[in-house]
Records
---
Amino acid sequence: MKQYSEKEIWEMLVSVPDPEIPALSVLDLGIVREVVLTGEQTLIKITPTYSGCPAMKEIEENILKELQAQGIDNAVVETILSPPWTTDWMTEEGKEKLRKFGIAPPEGSSADKSVLFGEAKKVTCPYCQSRNTQMVSQFGSTACKSLYKCEDCLEPFDYFKCL
Amino acid sequence: MQNELVQYTLRLGDNALILGQRLTEWCGHGPILEQDIALSNMALDQLGQARMLLQYAAQLKGEGSTEDALAFFRQEGEFRNLLLLELENGDWGKTIARQFLFDTFNYFQYTALLQSEDETLRAIAQKAIKEVTYHAQWSAEWVIRLGDGTDESHKRIQEAVDSLWEWANEMFVADAVDELMLEKGIGVNLTEIHALWEEKVAQVLAMATLQMPAETWAQTGGKQGDHTESLGFLLAEMQSLPRTYPEAKW
Ligand SMILES: [Zn+2]
């Protein structure tokens, strides 16, 4: 088996998509936390976006499949909980890809999340860039998104919530 | 001490599992599509939290225990969830009232668990608090919307809050397990959480033009495994597949 460097492993992971938003790779999302090469093992540490995220199992399998395709057969994927994933780890490139995909990327830092009942956040429409938008529902098509609508172009859209 | 930590973790895990299971019953039955989706998403968050907690409980127990074995092959008397969470959903008002009373408690509970001396519970709390914050916000908004809504919605949500009050009281009754966990710096201080909870609940009920129920007794037993008949029916449905086909894979 060919020995790859840590950097080469990271580069391979660029082609592993998120199953729910295939426009994004697992690296864009920031869920790969660490690659550890011990010689005997290629350990990939990932962290879930939401604790109930149904895509985690598939992500794990897709990572293993991609590495196997590159001839790495000693890969192990480990799920770690701490520190917890935050939308702050999403790359700028990832946010741009989301916008092109029609999903408004998280705005601001996760630290400013309103506690208990705060005002709904103002979000930019990914289609016409208007700020004149309204939250329709806190919970959208998946747990990580809220449903919004644009008052200018009238399109409904998903907003990737800050976490 | 190890046994108390298992019990404490099971209580947290079973609360998430049983409430998650109850919420899934709304899937396809919500009053409007957005809220149907909201409850399904919250159910998913609860099940995700349940998995982390039951995996930890299984690891602490050892002897080959697994999260699946804990969820699907325990009997009614072995579950440690609060009675409030196993009660039938009732109408939309009752589901919202239960969610609000519990989410508010859970928000303060996980906030306190961020300081737990137990590393795994602390990591789980870091994950859960973000989700629970969104839940608490959502259910408080719904209490206000129903209370300050029509005569009918006002009447129903008030009745729901009144009827659930004695069940909600179980959240604050500490037993020997809670006391030991608090003493070790692992668990939360239920007296402190009760005060924070009362303040928040009173604030939301006032905004909803609802009456705070009078002080009453506490329905207890859930945390020790003494359940209402509702849990048996819930488990029969939840556990039927893995019990019928124990080796099923898909
Ligand atoms: Zn627009």
---
Amino acid sequence: MAKEKIKVDFRFREKLNKIQGGKHHNYCYQCSACVAVCPAARFTEEFNPRVILLKTLLGMEEALTGEDSPIWLCTNCYSCYERCPQDVRPIEVIIALKNMAVQRQKAPASLAKLSENIAQTGVSVTVTSAVSRRRQELGLPPLKTIPIDELKEILEDPQSVTKDDK
Amino acid sequence: MMPLKYPQMELAIRKTLPNLGVELVDVDGFTCCPDPIYFKARDKIKWLTIAARNLAIAEEMGLDVITMCSGCISTLKEAKYTLDEDPEAKAEVNRRLKKINKEYRGTAQINHAVVLIRDTLGLDVVKKSIKRPLDGVTVAIHYGCHILKPSQIMHVDDADYPSILDDFVAAMGATPLDHREKLLCCGKGCMDEELPLEMTETIFASIEESGADCMGLVCPTCFSSFDLGQILISRKKGKTYNIPVIYLFQLLGLAQGLEPEQVGLHTHRIKADKVLEKIKESAKA
Ligand code: SF4
Ligand code: SF4
């Protein structure tokens, strides 16, 4: 088999370094301790945090932040963060990769749906009349109003995910 | 999430904590923490900003924050850890907060109600509040990931061999039962259809094997995986488990002598009749 040259995309890694939590990807020494405790890896071969870190070290932008990226299978359980001997905090690297995918508009459509409520209303669940009725039936006080103006103000762009974009 | 989706949990907190001598103050101006999964995946700096705004409000009032939810404590504690550790992130967050005349300083402490009970009030206070001990009731605890991990941020318990919830349940007179998958993630944060169902099913099978009367937990997201989750599993996989899922403060309410409706148990999909029967029996004995 002919030897293939491995190319590393350092530009991608530099971009990742600038996203909060992204820098720790540099510390990964591929030991697989994270894989042993990862529930997503236990239930599907499509997901493996060590492989995600390897691809990150190689700078494989499309594989990680493109439409078919496996990063969305992570259950957000923090077991890898707990276990990693190198303080890579793999889940936080995955979150940083997700932020990059969002910027590239390659995140799953369901993410927008699941996160839009917070941005628009300050709460994660839509307040419907059914919600208010249920609270009343249980004898709970009415919900407090959320200062949406303040929320809009602090969430206003310039897009904050990468400092390059500012 | 709790006040909107699972108000029965808020109800249980409001009914039980005063019996332990805790005065609850409702604070104006809080938003959702926000959730530690989806909004964070969208934009971590904005996620930190919303969390920091909530913490800044508590700081201004000189209060510490007590959460009832594993997701809330996860977000708020991680936000505090990150902002205290990363000056650049803190500067960006405070640049945003300045627009509304707020500042994150890092002075407020954050804890889950179960930690407050263990460390500040003491489990004896729980024992003293019990009017109807849950003798003979066996509870399979589901810890849930976010209250424990990462332990360097959460500072709640040993992430591999936790005991905080077992001890809490034991103080109510019930018996915590171990099972193989006690620490497995509920899978809710995974953005896939199949995977979360496989994970919850693994947990149900493990609990069924243990023979526990019910499942006990402190996280509303896990709750939805397991309560509604059992309906989904019987629909999609044809297997029915019928394991009642009880928020631990509802269980505490029952032990303090409250009726099931007073802690909102009637709102759950999987009915807890068998457990309630047992509690009645042991009260008679
Ligand atoms: S992320 Fe940490 S635990 Fe996982 S392979 Fe790299 S060094 Fe090992
Ligand atoms: S947080 Fe994600 S990558 Fe880390 S162990 Fe859990 S599922 Fe695996």
